[in-house]
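Course exercise 7: structure representation. Students receive a sequence record and must write out the corresponding structure in token form. The form below is the worked example handed out in class, using Helix-turn-helix (124 residues). Read each field label carefully; the graders check that inputs and outputs are placed in the correct fields and that the protein name is recorded exactly as given.

STUDENT ID: A-19
EXERCISE PROTEIN: Helix-turn-helix
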Amino acid sequence: MKPAKQKKLEAAGWKVGSAADFLGLTDAEEMLVSMKLALAGKVKELRQGQNITQTELAKRIGSSQSRVAKLETADRSVSLELLMRTLVTLGASQNQIGRIVSQQPIRKRPAVSRKNHGKELAKS
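STUDENT ANSWER:
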């Protein structure tokens, strides 16, 4: 966000920060979310690169197509273990998985919020 825009928002009563700040995530929670997103993105990338449908991948991992869809979007119900097991099924090595989770998180756009009657409201 441009500094001028940030100053203008803050002057109007808006609070500017990261999504993790807005959601109240701890550093550990933010790290886990970042790792899940990276692993999920790689699952989708490898699946598509191998021209495998979600249904075909589901059969390979003993699951359902809807579960693979959730897996690829890093749904909160998907475990890190399932993400890693799926990557191994797609041919990823232990070293490749290590590199995926150790990558720097994608730069986040600041979240913007304003207090209203004691409650934080998000505005897009």
